[in-house]
Amino acid sequence: MPPGKVLQPVLKMKVDELFLCWLSESSTQAMLQDCLQRIKMPGGPVGVGGDAGQPGPPFAAPALACRPRGLDSPGAPSLSPASTALPLGAASSARSGPPVRGPRRSAGTRVVQTRKEQPLPPAASLSIPTFYFPRGRPQDAVNVDAIIAKIERTFAQFPHERATMGDMGRVAKACGCPLYWKGPLFCGAGGERTGSVSVHKFVAMWRKMLQSCHDDAAKFVHLLVSPGGSSLAQEDFIPFLQDVVNTHPGLAFLKEASEFHSRYITTVIQRIFYTVNRSWSGRITCAELRRSTFLQPEVPGSGFLGVSWQNVALLEDEVDINQLTEFFSYEHFYVIYCKFWELDTDHDLLIDAQDLARHNDHAISTKMIERIFSGAVTRGKKVQKEGKISYADFVWFLISEEDKKTPTSIEYWFRCMDLDGDGVLSMFELEYFYEEQCRRLDSMAIEALPFEDCLCQMLDLVKPQSEGRITLHDLKRCKLASVFFDTFFNIEKYLDHEQREQISLFRESESEGPELSDWERYAAEEYDILVAEEAMGEPWEDGLASSG
């Protein structure tokens, strides 16, 4: 039938005839009788007791029950041409008695009408308290007008009520922020373009900030993020860290060595992302900042010597930058950069696989070096195509190599060992790395354990939840992940572990309190060695400054 063409009367009569034939069937009558009795007796038993399986008394003139009252003859047409709206008007047509289909439809209509007459209570979701605050939980106690008034009084002390970068320290304190927020505040108000910030522009910016950002993490991201962004990229931290380099008293000796500013800043940025960016996305979100100690303090008593760390705030209170070992320590930067300089023979700030293999006297296996350069843990596709890694990648490598107990380092080496990227270390992958360890031990005239025996030891050490499969969760739960990794790709540390008893290793892993981390211990030792070498007349060619 062409689209849009309605049924013709002759065809409609045939449809009605077929319907009446169906209605006259005994099975149809029994079904309708059962339905009628259910409707009439809603509180009674379902069905008609034992009669449900037997045919009941036949309907009187079933065919006539569906016809209009005026049609007495069985042979007369069932509907006139004017009655073309049967599918839509069957429930309201005048009939000689209650038709068999009528009660079902009317009953169903009554149920719907009853529900409409009794409005439902408000949706349950409306009564659930808000629990997701991407920009921080709003605080009712914040007096915005009082804060703005304090800021305006501070600007009134400046010439023409305009603040330069040197004035932003007082503005930051008026805003209730740590001192070293002055750089982000200056940039957030557009000061880097004009060299100063007017009181009106700053107040408008800060009022909007207080209304939309309700905690330090949201405010910090809003101040530093690029236009249109919602998370921080590595380059977003440069203005903040450049101000730290320029004004922190613990870095005053670095002012004259401007060529090392960018390298110190790069080191700090990589350490921030190494610790804070737990998603490995290359962008730091508000949620990741809240979970870190970069802006937020730790739970009291959980930090070093029970101190509640808040690194950016401590920049103001701690004159010795080297005490801030998590991110800002110059001594740590000095160690990392010197180690990279030793390997980077052409000093182009890039190293290849052969350069990296020389680290720690070729302690790391060739297969692991290849995995590092495969892109499993490095960024920068252009550098990877050239078969090199940058100084930024080396920062991640060195910290992970010297401290295999942190969550990020465990993830780093797990990614390298997971050859097929399925999230599980199989026995094949473990054997792949252990084969080279065995060859290297043989070349040193040291008898290596057969792989089966070594595997049993490692499974006892890690105790994986699934037999024959080691997951990232298993290694994070295990307190001796460093022993596991060194067994498969670091020959020097593997031999060192073998010489020490397992009991002493467990004691070290379970010790709590003021113990230095493996990385802090390594950095302190190496820094002392480097300073001693410099004092003996072996300065670095480029004149790298030392804070010692």
UniProtKB/TrEMBL annotation:
Residue ranges constituting the EF-hand domain according to the UniProt record: 405-440
Signal peptide residues on this chain, from the entry's feature table: none
Gene Ontology molecular function, alphabetical: calcium ion binding; protein phosphatase regulator activity
PROSITE patterns for the chain: EF_HAND_1, EF_HAND_2
A GO cellular component annotation in the UniProt record: protein phosphatase type 2A complex
Keyword Calcium appears in the UniProt entry: yes
Entry keywords, A to Z: Calcium, Metal-binding
Listed Pfam families: EF-hand_13, EF-hand_7, P2R3B_EF-hand
Transport listed as a keyword: no
Location of region: Disordered: 67-121
Biological function: The B regulatory subunit might modulate substrate selectivity and catalytic activity, and might also direct the localization of the catalytic enzyme to a particular subcellular compartment.
Name listed for the protein in its UniProt record: Serine/threonine-protein phosphatase 2A regulatory subunit B'' subunit beta isoform X3
Source taxonomy: Eukaryota, Metazoa, Chordata, Craniata, Vertebrata
